[in-house]
């Protein structure tokens, strides 16, 4: 008789045999791990050896005295009192300062460059504003630096302008000096021109 392998049911897995005590099977308790005695013994031995080594080092440091540097006292030779009285001190050397006399009679000639000719009065313009209030504010900032400025009204093709001007300066060097003072305070827009009265 031929067997039908295609429709044959798979065999059921077998269950583990349990004791027939009537109660459900309990899980077996996990085995108790023993502490690593060998590792503990090695750790204690290492700590003991380290402590012994420290005691030995400490003992040798205490027993060995610190080296003391030998100090030698300088030998002092003393002369008898009779010899000290017999040898007088030599007289002080005579001071011969020749340059003092030379400097008293010497004249120093210094070439002073002639003052540069004044090419007319200069003015320094630091700002130009559309509004009078802005010009007055700039004038106040310049006054805080100890310089006196004036606000000059100018009519042009583009309208009315208020210019903040310092001067007149007889020499351009004086205007440059004031421009550097104002630049250090933050006002770096000043220009030097010929005076426009």
TrEMBL record:
Keywords (A to Z) from UniProt: Membrane, Transmembrane, Transmembrane helix
Membrane-crossing ranges are 36-55
Biased composition regions of type Basic residues, renumbered to the chain: 8-17
- What cellular component terms from Gene Ontology apply here? cell outer membrane
- Chain positions covered by the region annotation Disordered: 1-31, 65-94
Q: Which InterPro entries match?
A: SPOR-like_dom, SPOR-like_sf
User: Does the keyword section mention Ligase?
Assistant: no
What GO molecular function terms would the record report?
A: peptidoglycan binding
Biased-composition ranges, Polar residues, are 74-85
PROSITE patterns, sorted? SPOR (PS51724)
UniProt-listed Pfam families:
SPOR
Record keywords: Membrane included?
A: yes
Domain SPOR per the UniProt entry, residue ranges: 116-195
Name under which the protein is recorded: Sporulation protein
What's the source species for this entry?
Corallincola holothuriorum
């Amino acid at each position: 008789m031929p067997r039908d392998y295609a429709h044959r049911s798979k065999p059921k897995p077998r269950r583990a045999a349990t004791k027939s005590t009537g109660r459900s099977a309990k899980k077996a308790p996990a085995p108790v791990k023993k502490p690593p005695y060998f590792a503990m013994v090695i750790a204690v031995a290492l700590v003991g050896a380290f402590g012994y080594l420290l005691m030995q080092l400490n003992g040798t440091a205490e027993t060995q005295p610190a080296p003391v540097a030998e100090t030698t006292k300088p030998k002092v030779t003393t002369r008898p009192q009779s010899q000290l009285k017999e040898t007088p001190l030599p007289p002080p050397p005579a001071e011969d300062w020749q340059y003092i006399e030379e400097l008293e009679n010497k004249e120093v000639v210094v070439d002073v460059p002639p003052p540069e000719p004044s090419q007319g009065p200069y003015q320094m313009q630091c700002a130009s504003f559309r509004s009078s209030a802005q010009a007055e504010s700039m004038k106040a900032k310049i006054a805080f630096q100890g310089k006196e400025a004036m606000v000059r009204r100018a009519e042009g093709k583009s309208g009315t302008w208020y210019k903040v001007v310092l001067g007149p300066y007889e020499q351009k060097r004086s205007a440059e000096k004031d421009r550097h003072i104002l630049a250090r305070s933050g006002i770096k827009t000043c220009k030097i021109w010929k005076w426009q009265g």
